[in-house]
What we know:
Blueprint: H1 2-14, H2 20-35, H3 42-52, H4 57-63, H5 72-87, H6 94-101, H7 108-181
Helix pairs in contact: 2-3, 2-4, 2-7, 3-4, 5-7
Amino acid sequence: MKDWLDKKFIVKLLELGDPPEKIARGIAVGIFVSITPTAGVQTIIAIVLATIMKGNRLAAALFTWVSNYATAIPILWANYTLGAILTGKPLLSWHGIKELVHLKSIGLVAGFCELVGNIWHIFIPMLIGGIIFGIALAVLAYFISLPLLRKHYERKKAKRLEKEKDLATKEGSIVSRDSLSAKPEPPLQDRR
C-alpha cells in the first residue's frame, strides 16, 4: 500500500503541468510551513504563501504533510530546543513541558486562558526555531527538487518529441503511398 501511495503521490506531483520552478517553490513553501508550529492551519498558510511566492499551491499543500502524527513531536522538540537556545530561555525538560500543559484552573474559559499563558512560554522559542529550521529546509528542498523536476520535464519533452517524430514519419509514409496509388480525380466540369 505504501509503495502505491508513494508512486501515486510522486506521479501526481510530476504531472501538475506547471514549470519546474513553480512546483519547486510550492514544495519549498510546503516544507517551510510543515516545520513551523502551525498545526491545524498549515495547509491554509501554505496555500496563501504559495500564492504570494508564485509557487504551485497543490505542491505546497501536499508538502505540509511532512509534519504528521509520526514526525510532529521530534520536529516541535527540535524547534523548541533551537528557539530556547537562541532566545536564552531555560530549556525545559519533557516533564517541565507536561507541567505547563497540566491545568490547575477550573472551568473552560479559565483553563483555556491558563493553557494559552503556559504554552506561550514555549511557543515563542518553538516558533523562532521553526522559522529558522523551516527556512533552511525550504532552501534545501528547493535546490534538491528543482534539478530533479527539470530532468523529469526534459525527459518527458524528449519522449513527446520522439512520439511526434514517429507519428510524422508514419503519416508521411502513408501520405506518400496514398499519393502514389491514388487516381487523379477529373476536373469538376468533367464529373457529370
